[in-house]
Amino acid sequence: MPLITSITLDNQNVFDSTDHSLPARVQNLLHARTRAGLIRREFLFHVGEPYDSARVAETERNLRRLGTFKQVSIDTVRSDSAWPSMS
Q: How many domains are contained in the chain?
């Protein structure tokens, strides 16, 4: 079973940075991004543990249940990395 060797959190603005309309820019300026710690406390998986698709799916549901995100997506990438890391 593959191990989780790293977790990268990509917490984005409400609107994509390519949307240069005034409302989008104002909304991104006024909206505070959700803190990484709040997001990570919902994770049911950790670096060094075996990958478990059920825990990943439940983590996505937990994050959606918070009601603060427009979209939640957890993606996996296979890597030859031998050393666990957290960024």
A: 1
pLDDT (tens digit, 9 = 90+) per residue, 27-40?
767 766 678 888 89
Question: Count of residues for the chain?
Answer: 87
Which of 28, 2, 13 has its CA nearest to residue 81?
A: 2
Range of the structural domain that residue 48 is part of: 6-82
Residue 44 lies in a domain: yes
Q: How far apart are CA 85 and CA 25, in angstroms?
A: 34
Dihedral of alpha carbons 62, 64, 67, 70, sign: positive
pLDDT at 55 over 90: yes
The pTM assigned to this predicted structure is 0.68
